[in-house]
Automatic annotation (TrEMBL), chain A:
Organism name: Saccharomycodes ludwigii
Cited PANTHER family: INOSITOL PHOSPHORYLCERAMIDE SYNTHASE REGULATORY SUBUNIT KEI1
GO biological process, one term: inositol phosphoceramide metabolic process
Keyword Membrane belongs to the record: yes
Name of the protein this chain belongs to: Related to Inositol phosphorylceramide synthase regulatory subunit KEI1
Organism classification: Eukaryota, Fungi, Dikarya, Ascomycota, Saccharomycotina
UniProtKB/TrEMBL annotation, chain B:
A biological-process GO annotation: mannosyl diphosphorylinositol ceramide metabolic process
The protein's name in its UniProt record: Related to Inositol phosphorylceramide synthase catalytic subunit AUR1
Region (Disordered): 437-460
Transmembrane portions of the chain: 51-69, 76-109, 153-178, 185-204, 269-292
Organism of origin: Saccharomycodes ludwigii
């Protein structure tokens, strides 16, 4: 399998992972603001709820990864890789789902009714103050095809960037896996940690990390 | 008067208490002699990055010169004034470093005067569409759904008040409490972020959420006035016209993407987090607060905020690895349990030396960095030397006692005092065009005069051409002082050589080790 060796062919891989995680974290704040809909009375569908909750969970995982990027732990980054890959896969589904919803509610509606929102707010006095700066005012606004290309390009850029970041994280974990410094000597250190004395969340987290580590090991070794 | 004098002395004492004697690294240039800068310029060797940097900014200034509608004589006088400020050492240290910011301001105020026939079409529907597709819903709509006076005031504080003063406050705090030359990095990052932001806004003009609320999705044009959005309610609450007129006559009305409010707040938070890492949650909270208020006041879509923050983060990351000096309590320099690491605020005058971030040294995948006592050490390999015979340890200690004090500065709190020129050459530094003192990557701790600087410049230029020399280091971390870290330079790269033989070839400096003894070898 092909693994990236560097970030943009110039910088060390971890610089790209750091940047990618930071950008993804910024995006994942959408979960926080989506959940705020609870307080504004805006109704959310099940798909939206699942999207925002998963975003919030991913935000926590990625933040910890970004915080420890200079002193990474293989098990944790294995977990991060699994979460990120799952996030990428589900993101394709969400984009498809929300894209279809947006299309049906906007484009289809616009086709059936050419000017649904053409009347400005009646209470507005700003519209009255419009002064002409160009000869053709109509030409100063974007056409429908321009808007569509703009929307499609931005969505595509987001998808391609996500894929590239995912590939960088894969390469990063793969390199850690083969680096003597990050060898996990004892995979079954449950006894050493005395898991029985920890709460259920810690146990689950520990087991999840171990599972992800074994999964990554299976693929990369 | 006495009370004021006492207070002034107390402030001075607070900032200068950790200052190293005769160390000028935290000081400012006071010369008014233009020849000093001209000489530095003459001796300066431009790197490829510098050529790209200055060419880009120059092209923007040429663009501004021809497109700005101001009288030709006025523009010429302005450019001459700028050049004068750049050439006098006292002023150039501020104004030349702020060149990206000045370029952004020049372009921003010129962009308002562009002829409509040259402007790009205004997008009205794309941003809400992208937001819905990427984030599941129109988040700005969700947050602006219900309004009340309490939320209005809460949103106004970061968006309408803090945002405009924050860059200056942040700059002053960074100047006083950050490492020397950090402010230059801040000016670089802040200026470029805004400059690129304005270019994107001009290339892809987009309408804000307030436009959709006022006009729906009807076509926009450049004859339209701006709107204060939710800030109109603040004007109503306060009973004054604070924002309505100002936003109606805004220079950039259709500049939703990217949000420079978000970009500025993120940049400020990133720099503050860099200098005061323990206060990071406070800065993250501030950015989240500003994001919420931006959407609540219908000034930006969430996708604009993400774009602004992404732009900021990208430029900050570049600046961090190319321009920023390490802070005094950087984990790679001091033990996490030391007093220096525990302290949050350090005055700029506490720095006796500057060490810059080097992305290759910090690479966790390289063979040269290892986690050590909670910090990062640039070891090739670490061996526990607890198994050494007493004679070998005594031999090392003797060597340490005879050579260890040579390069140690007087400030016992400074983690920089044990760095040798050899380790300095491995760090990347950021010389300014008019900054003879910072060329190369050498220490600035012992600089004395401009003539010395020029001489050193020649030396540092020659050292940077040297091939990398293997370094052997012994690091001890007592947990209380940072001065235990020491470096031994060795010209022998054979890793199998015995400790005793290696010591015989050492040419550098060794420090004492109170804790566990480690050997770093190349």
């Amino acid at each position: 399998m092909f693994y990236l060796q560097s970030f943009l062919g110039i910088y060390p891989l971890y610089v790209g992972v750091e940047l990618g995680l930071g950008v993804t974290i910024i995006n994942k704040f959408s979960g926080l603001y989506g959940i705020l809909a609870l307080f504004t009375g805006h109704s959310l569908s099940f798909v939206q709820w699942s999207f925002y909750l998963f975003s919030f969970f991913a935000l926590i995982v990625y933040s910890q990864g970004l915080y420890t990027i200079h002193t990474p732990k293989l098990k944790y980054f294995s977990l991060l890789l699994c979460v990120y890959t799952l996030d990428t896969l589900t993101n394709f589904f969400y984009i498809l789902w929300f894209g279809v919803e947006w299309y049906t509610s906007n484009i289809a509606a616009a086709n059936s009714n050419p000017s649904p929102n053409s009347s400005p707010d009646p209470n507005l006095n700003v519209a009255e103050k419009i002064t002409k700066r160009g000869a053709s005012l109509q030409s100063q606004s974007a056409s429908l095809s321009y808007e569509f290309i703009f929307t499609a390009t931005m969505t595509l850029i987001a998808l391609v960037a996500r894929l590239y970041i995912n590939l960088m994280i894969i390469a990063f974990v793969q390199k850690m896996m083969h680096h003597s410094k990050y060898i996990v000597e004892d995979e079954n250190d449950d006894v050493d940690l005395n898991l029985k004395n920890h709460n259920i969340c810690f146990k689950m987290w520990f087991k999840l990390e171990k599972f992800c580590y074994r999964l990554c090991k299976f693929f990369f070794e | 008067m006495n009370i004021i004098k006492k207070k002034m002395n107390a402030v001075k004492q607070y900032f200068l208490k950790d200052r190293v004697n005769n160390c000028k690294v935290g000081g400012l240039e006071t010369s008014l002699n233009p020849m000093q800068n001209l000489k530095a310029l003459q001796n300066h060797t431009f790197t490829t990055k510098e050529i790209i940097h200055y060419s880009f900014l120059s092209s923007v200034w040429i663009f501004v010169f021809f497109l700005n509608p101001a009288p030709l004589l006025g523009k010429l006088l302005f450019y001459i004034m700028l050049c004068t400020l750049f050439i006098i050492p006292l002023t150039s240290q501020f104004f030349f470093s702020a060149l990206p910011i000045l370029t952004w301001l020049g372009l921003y105020f010129t962009s308002a005067t562009f002829n409509n026939s040259y402007r790009r079409p205004i997008s009205v529907k794309a941003l809400p569409a992208v937001e819905t597709i990427l984030y599941g819903d129109n988040l700005s709509d969700i947050l602006a759904n219900s309004t009340n006076h309490f939320f209005d005031i809460l949103a106004w504080i970061p968006y309408g008040l803090f945002h405009f003063g924050a860059p200056f406050v942040v700059a002053i705090i960074l100047f006083l409490f950050g490492p020397p030359r950090l402010l230059r990095g801040y000016a670089f990052a802040f200026g470029y972020m805004n400059l690129i932001g304005v270019i994107i806004q001009s290339l892809f003009p987009s309408a804000s959420p307030w436009y959709k609320n006022l006009y729906g999705i009807q076509p926009a044009n450049y004859g339209m006035k701006g709107s204060p959005g939710g800030l109109r309610r603040i004007d109503e609450i306060l009973g004054i016209d604070l924002y309505s007129t100002a936003f109606a006559n805004s220079a950039v009305i259709f500049g939703a993407l990217p949000s420079l409010h978000s970009g500025c707040a993120t940049m400020e938070a990133l720099f503050f987090s860099y200098v005061f890492p323990k206060l990071r949650p406070v800065f993250i909270f501030y950015v989240c607060w500003l994001w919420w208020s931006t959407m609540y006041l219908t000034h930006h879509y969430f996708v604009d905020l993400v774009a602004g923050a992404t732009l900021s983060f990208t430029i900050f990351q570049y600046t961090k690895y190319h321009h920023l000096p390490k802070i005094i309590n950087d984990p790679s320099l001091v033990n996490s349990a030391s007093n220096i690491a525990k302290k949050i605020f350090h005055s700029r005058w506490a720095y006796s030396d500057l060490k810059y971030n080097n992305m290759y040294e910090l690479d966790p995948l390289s063979r040269g960095s290892t986690i050590l006592n909670g910090g990062i050490s640039n070891d090739l390999e670490i061996q526990d030397l607890s198994g050494l015979t007493p004679n070998e340890i005594i031999e090392m200690n003797n060597f340490n006692n005879t050579t260890g004090g040579k390069n140690v500065a007087s400030n016992t709190n400074s983690p920089f005092r044990v760095q040798t020129p050899m380790t300095q050459t491995s760090s990347s530094t950021v010389p300014s065009l008019f900054d003879a003192a910072s060329i190369g990557s050498r220490s600035r701790s012992s600089e004395t005069s401009y003539e010395d600087d020029v001489e050193r410049e020649a030396m540092s230029n020659s050292t940077t051409l040297m091939p990398s020399v293997p370094v052997i280091s012994m690091s001890g971390h007592s947990g209380t002082t940072a001065g235990n870290a020491s470096t031994l330079s060795n010209s022998n790269s054979n890793s199998k050589t015995s400790i005793s033989n290696l010591i015989g070839n050492f040419t550098g400096v060794a420090g004492n080790n109170n804790g566990k003894l480690f050997l770093k070898k190349d």
